[in-house]
Amino acid sequence: MEMVLTVSVVLLMFSLVIPAAREIVNKTRSDNVVVDLEKIQSDINDFITINRRLPDSLAEIYADIPRDPWGNKFKYLNIADSDESIKFKVRKYKFIKNLNSDYDLFSVGIDGESVQPLIGKSSRDDIVRAKNGLFIGPAEELIKSINE
Q1: Short-list 66, 38, 40, 29, CA closest to 136
Q2: Where are the chain's structural domains?
Q3: What are 129-136's contacts with CB under 8 Å, separation 24+?
Q4: Cys staple from 91: which of 24, 38, 99, 144, with CB 3.0 to 4.6 Å?
Q5: What is the DSSP letter of 118?
Q6: How far is Cα 144 from Cα 97, in angstroms, rounded to an integer?
Q7: Residue scoring higher pLDDT (63 or 9)
């Protein structure tokens, strides 16, 4: 009986600790993505300084497009130098406000999925660049700041 009780207590402790540890790992990964996006933004700025234009893709800057900690390639979309057809790919908030006017840069997050409107369920875990680089962070934080 004591053995069953001991095993039950240990299993209960693991059931509490494992989700908390997973949350800490994902928070650390998200923080690392913010640093990575800031570095990519800096590399894009260097490209602009040298070439006097935005890159058409991240492949113009990197031989291998960087990946986030979940293994997904970072996403980039040149908005400023594109024609009207691009407007259907631009990240938005509530189908109205574009997040950026120059370029979109983001990680699709833990789930590896994303949709154009930031409020979509699969976009909530994205790590995004918004306000032309004045904000880089989790989409949920951006949504909260916009709604306040």
Answers
A1: 38
A2: 2-147
A3: 129/37, 129/41, 129/99, 129/100, 129/104, 129/105, 130/91, 130/99, 130/100, 131/99, 131/100, 132/100, 132/101, 132/102, 133/41, 133/100, 133/102, 136/34, 136/37, 136/38, 136/41
A4: 99
A5: T
A6: 15
A7: 63
